[in-house]
Amino acid sequence: MFDMIVKNANLPDGRQGQDILILDGRIADILPTSDQHQAKQIIDASNCLVSPPFVDPHFHMDATLSLGLPRLNRSGTLLEGIALWGELKPTLTKEAMVERALRYCDLAVSQGLLFIRSHVDVSDPRLLTVEAMLEVRELVKPYIELQLVAFPQDGYYRAPGAVELLDRSLDMGLDIVGGIPHFERTMADGAASLEALCRIAAERGLPVDIHCDETDDPMSRHVETLAAQTIRFGLQGRVAGSHLTSMHSMDNYYVSKLIPLMAEAEMHVIPNPLINITLQGRSDTYPKRRGMTRVPELMAAGINVSFGHDCAMDPWYSMGSGDMLEVGHMAIHVAQMTSIDARKQVFDALTVNSAKTLGLEGYGLARGCKADMVVLQARDQLEALRLKANRLFVIKAGKVIAETPRRLSSLHLEGRPAQVDSADYAPTGAI
After folding, report:
1. pLDDT of residue 78
2. For residues 147 and 85, what is the distance between their CA atoms, to the nearest angstrom?
3. DSSP alpha helices (H): ranges in 210-339?
4. Contact of 91 with 33, CB cutoff 8 Å
5. Which pLDDT belongs to residue 128?
6. How many angstroms separate the CA atoms of 50 and 16, rounded?
7. What are phi and psi of 333, to 5 degrees?
8. C-alpha 210 chain-centroid distance
């Protein structure tokens, strides 16, 4: 007798009509559909895609859902967003940040997003952001794993007291060392900050996740320094470069040398498609750069690429829904990753690649993995991305924690079907 069976599941590896057998919060086995097994609860996936949960490797939960405070970003630009956050920070309270973050986590669960890495601004001497996010991490632990990055948002060397504040925030319990070298006053200061931050990570045994080269300037090349310091301090596999938008504007010869260095350092790369293409290229007329880093080329070099949501309804981004399929949908368009294999790579960048970036254990759909999964109203990964598919069931440790009715439209047209299910429009033939 199993605790749960998810029957008639299609899996990301192409297997169809599978039963996922769950016992004691783990996947006991995955077998072709059969009536031989019994369970306390049976969920019929009806040949829909069952995926591991979505993973967001880059988010800012301390600012989420603060849109309109203290006023709206009228221009929609990065600079006005930074100014707004500067106005908002002195008025922040721990209680308000906790409440907004918990509301976002509710939304995330409904979208099948169960793992999030959030950057925490540690520039305010009160460190209320740290206190608030540590509380949220504990409150959501039963259903969301939240990793927290100590992020000196105003610059590690540029902002007064930032060096000491970063150390204090790590002592308080943040998980990861962050930085923003392109925001330092000089290129030299940016490079020096990376050396210091990687040294801290090595000494404390922590991962590193850097807002790196989030600019249109092709001469912003801090990712090169980050890769070199990763190797120097023996941090291979533990360092992520987030954004890397300047690579969009670099010349091809330089990039041909840079990407192998990043591969040697075993760096993770985290583009944020929604934000990168919205904020970059603002000073261009035409042709206008879109800013997202070189995703296909990085993947082709064997570099682990995972996509982040970054922001949702905050001073920098007035959009956002916690839907990682929306992130992947946009990535397909802006990176022109429309081939069958490329779209599968995009889906992986929302799931298994991001799980690798976060170092998750027991993640996936295989015997012995944690029984965390999402049933999507779509036949396969390609259809899930096309439709930004409805989450029928969200399962955590073998228990349903969110469910949404199947999305159907009723038609009142003579001679036409009474209902339309968008998932029925999948093309014929194998993918």
Report:
1. 81
2. 22
3. 222-232, 252-264, 273-279, 295-300, 324-334
4. no
5. 98
6. 10
7. -70, -50
8. 14
Q: How far apart are the C-alpha atoms of 244 and 220, rounded to whole Å? A: 9
Listed as ranges, residues in the chain with pLDDT below 50 are none
- Find, among 217, 174, 176, 211, the residue nearest to 194 by Cα: 211
User: CB 131: neighbour CB atoms within 10 A?
Assistant: 17
113 within 8 A of 54, measured Cβ to Cβ: yes
How wide is the angle at C-alpha 386 spanned by C-alphas 381 and 388, nearest 5°? Answer: 85
Tell me the C-alpha distance between 395 and 405, whole Å.
Answer: 15
Q: How far apart are CA 100 and CA 257, in angstroms?
A: 43
Q: Name the residue among 51, 150, 53, 67 with its Cα closest to residue 103.
A: 67
Furthest CA-CA distance within the chain: 72
Q: Rounded CA gap, 304 and 354, in Å?
A: 8
Residue 383 annotated in active site = no
Alpha carbons 364 and 352: distance in angstroms, whole number: 7
The two counts, helices (H) then strands (E), for the chain are 13, 18
Collapsing DSSP to helix, strand or coil, 291 comes out as coil
Q: 50 — phi, psi (to 5°)?
A: -110, 125
Active-site residue, from 135, 184, 214, 264: 214
The DSSP bridge partners found for residue 396 are 399
pLDDT at 431: 58
DSSP H helices, 265-380, are: 273-279, 295-300, 324-334, 340-350, 352-358
> Quick one: CA dihedral 89, 95, 96, 100, positive or negative?
positive
Pairing of strands 391-396, 419-420: unpaired
Classify residue 294 by burial, with Cβ atoms within 10 Å: 0-12, 13-18, 19+.
buried
226 sits in the region (left: phi over 0; alpha: psi -120 to 50; else beta) called: alpha
Distance from the Cα of residue 345 to its chain's centroid: 15
Partners of residue 270 on adjacent β-strands: 242
Calculate the alpha carbon distances from 284 to 57, 146, 216, 295 in Å.
29, 37, 10, 22
Domains delineated in the chain: 2-52+365-425 (2.30.40.10), 54-358 (3.20.20.140)
The pLDDT of residue 79 is 83
80-104: buried (b, 16+ CB within 10 Å) or exposed (e) per residue? bbbebbeebbeebebeebbebbeeb
pTM metric for this prediction: 0.97
**Which DSSP letter does residue 10 get?**
B
